[in-house]
Amino acid sequence: MEQHKRKAVARWLIAGVIMIIIQTLLGGVTRLTGSGLSITKWNPLFGILPPLNDGQWNEAFEGYKRIGQFKFMNSDYSMSDFKFIFFWEWFHRFWARMLGIVFAVGFVYFMVKKYFDKQMVRPFVVLFLLGGLQGLIGWIMVASGLNDSHLYVDHIKLALHFVSAMILACYTLWFALHLLIPDEGCIVDPGLHNFTIAAIILLFVQLTYGAFMAGLHAAISAPTWPTINTMWVPENLAYKSYISDKINVQFIHRSLAYLLLIVIVGWYFRATAAAKFHTESLLRKTRVWPLYLVAGQVLLGIITVISAPLIVHGRFGVFETLAELHQLVAMFLLMGLVINLYVVRKWAN
User: Fold this and answer.
1) What mean pLDDT is predicted for residues 304-311?
2) Which of 27, 121, 185, 306 has the fewest CB atoms lying closer than 10 Å?
3) What is the rounded CA–CA span in Å between residue 206 and residue 210?
4) Which helix (H) or strand (E) holds 170?
């Protein structure tokens, strides 16, 4: 395959990764503004259009009025309030559709232009299956809150939706790296390769608990640092759920953050030692990315949790902005580790 064709396909895939990151951030906005349950129907085809007249708006609002979030939390909402939350959920779904269109149109274009080779068939099949699965998981998540017994979506389904989005982004990025990075830019170091995998697994666990924090709205339960409401270890740690109790979830999320910081600092020194013997490797540049990002992520996490008392229902303020930045840096950290995993191989091709 000609180099310019490989680069063109790779740029298209990188654009897809960027769109997935934006889509994930939009998902964060819908959660932080309480917008995620405003659209009570799943209409993959015609849902691309918002309500276009008063009758359609009234029908959409009446659908929202039938669920618990309106009855027990937002019963004072006017049509104007509803239109605000509806917009963010609609835009989140609209961006997802645009993402699908960008992939579909690009795929057809490159196929007609014969930019693909046989080795790309299987990765593209997996890519489209992951994209479809992500949409399905998203609706399952939303449906978990469309009842009288929940004010929000199920936090476990929210975590699954977020983690599956990150898997899709990582897979797309890996595909692009395969087309962009030549073998001579990589090194073979089985030990460092395994170390990188371990760091990524730990980060995925941390991301899952971050999603639990978001879904449970757990930050406000302990907006203090370095202690958790004056405690170093929650008194009910051994007696309450590790995935549903807000204090326990926050304690685990914080503990994983400190552990991840230590692991990535250790990884950095190990990668630096390896880079000294491979002067042409991209590792000399890419090894610093996770170190800077994890430091920024921990700092943002601390600032975000202590700003939780600034939360005002229905407004997007300081806490919400920090929470979005916290999520963005987490995604950059994951992408940085994936790039390093590609650069550091277990064996030669």
Assistant:
1) 94
2) 121
3) 6
4) helix 155-180
